[in-house]
Structure formats: C-alpha cells, structure tokens
Amino acid sequence: MKLILLSGWGVDRRIWQTLSEHWPSPVEPSAVEWPGYGDAPALPTPTHIEALAERMASKLPSDAVWVGWSLGGLLATALLNHLPPPKALLLLGAGSCFCSDGEDGGVTSDELASFQCTFRRDPVATWRHFLRWQAQGEPNAREAHRQLRAQLGETPHADTDTLAQGLMWLETLDNRALLANPPCPIRRLAGAHDPLLPSSTRQQALRLEDAGHCPMLSQPAQLAARLAEQATRALQEPR
Known about the structure:
The protein is an alpha/beta fold. The chain has one domain: Rossmann fold (3-Layer(aba) Sandwich). The chain has helices at 49-56, 71-79, 109-121, 123-134, 141-152, 160-172, 176-180, 199-203, 215-218, 220-235; strands at residues 2-6, 28-32, 65-69, 88-92, 99-100, 107-108, 186-191, 206-208. It is globular, with a radius of gyration of 16 Å.
C-alpha cells in the first residue's frame, strides 16, 4: 500500500522522518516535496492551482493513498479537481478551509491577515513563530518545538515567494463543495488539541488523543498505525 506524504506550510518533507520506524509492513511511504521546498524547483509566483497540478502530476500517482497534513491537506484536496484521484485521501490536521469564524477556536481571517503582514516585514522570524504556534497543542509543547527546530533548522527550506504563495492559499482555498461530493474515499484525522483547527473540524475527524497539530512529533507510533488503519479502511470502501 503506497502512501504519499505531503507536508504543510513552511515545513518540508523531513517532518515525516519520525514515522520511519513505526510503519506496519504493508505500507510503502514516500514523502514528496511541494514546489519551492527542499530541492524542488519553485513555481513562478503568484501562481494558480492548475500550475501546481501540472508540476505535481508525476509525484501524485492515482494508484496510491495521499496523506495531506495541514496546508498539504488543503492543496491535495484542491488537486482532486485537476488530477486523476488517488485510491483515497487522508486529511491530517486539515479541514475544508483554513480560516474559521473564531466562535469554536481555530484561526480567524483577521488572525491570518495579521500573520501575513508580519510575514511581509520579517519572513524568517514569522516562520519561527509559526513553529512555536503549531507546537502548542502537544503534551510537551517545548519538546515538540525543540524537535521541530532540530529537524528543520533555523531557516525555512523554502523561498519567501513560495511561503507567501502558501499563505495566500491558506486564505483562499475553500474545498467545501468538493468534499461534499469527493471523487475518492476521504478520511480525516486530527489531534484532539490542535490549536489551528476549530472544534467542529476536530469533531468530524478521527481524533488522536494527547496530540495537537504535530502528532508526528508527539505520537509517531500512534499516528503511523492510525494512518495505515484508515488507509486500509478507505481502500475497502466502494468507489
């Protein structure tokens, strides 16, 4: 069973390394980079989802299960309209859109706009702040943040234009219509204490207890087992 692992904003594929020792034997994981991350060439910016689909077509095979974390989940969902759908899609720490109304938690449009303004003034400092922010829901936030810094270093492995484009996608992507009638089975997973998700999104997902937005740091064995389990169940659904 092939799993294609897709990371989120400001974070390259190294985030998945913690799971490497925990995958059950039927799973063949492959973490791929979005354009502009790691060694993957960036797309011209601003860009459109069609250009992203063209670049990612060879990396997102239809005979696999895609696993999209955070912004990676939003993008993977949007790409269902532009690429042959996978056998299934697992959304980890991702809903139908990023911003919420704030009444049940999550990130509001005003908070994202403020974050974008801060990013324009100092991209690296803002990225470092985001690492601290997304670690807040873990049982030991300080340790989770230390792990992130150890994995990712002091600067993002993506250029500023790519990161700015990612923030624009967080602002604009809305997959509600697509998720209402998806072209493949979709399963949702979320940390029970994810600070970036509203409670309504967490309630719709299979919740990972004692985890926040980064369960690959705090609960790697549990996350690998749950992803394999949910992929297997999704593959058994009629298509």
